[in-house]
Amino acid sequence: xxxxxxxxxxxxxxxxxxxxxxxxxxxxxxxxxxxxxxxxxxxxxxxxxxxxxxxxxxxxxxxxxxxxxxxxxxxxxxxxxxxxxxxxxxxxxxxxxxxxxxxxxxxxxxxxxxxxxxxxxxxxxxxxxxxxxxxxxxxxxxxxxxxxxxxxxxxxxxxxxxxxxxxxxxxxxxxxxxxxxxxxxxxxxxxxxxxxxxxxxxxx
Length: 204
Description:
- It is a single chain.
- This protein has 5 helices and 12 strands.
- The chain has helices at 74-79, 90-100, 107-115, 177-184, 193-201; strands at 6-7, 13-14, 22-25, 47-49, 69-71, 83-84, 124-127, 136-139, 142-147, 150-154, 159-164, 170-173.
């Protein structure tokens, strides 16, 4: 039986056998002894991590330990309000801090800046043409990734459909605006391989 530890672009935890390419957590244990989710987060420290680091091994959702969460890719983690881990992804975290505006930025300050947008809070709308690659938007009730000249439909297992990017459309933005600004300043999220496959398959 799949555990409720997968994360969608809205930041919602759901059950799925799909593992994804990144792991993360929300500051502590979100589950009880029966490995059932009882809270959406423990603290404001929402991070995105690599799947393996220094050979560490553990049982997922161990009692009294932090809850391991899984994302299809980094773009989904960002849309959900997570930022790069400062330990297992130190280089990416430093690059993200540069895009945030300062290498001296503290993790706590970044987490506080993102918290007001998490779990559907302070949703905004924006012209689609103004958004950089890596953003998630909602169109017709579904989450789509903005990538190059296309929109890619998210599913738990992969990006499943490609549409052209309409030049004149205003959309609901799922990715927090401070992260969108980081993308504009040059931080490029790491996409799932299916995103690259869809993009390359449709090029002339």
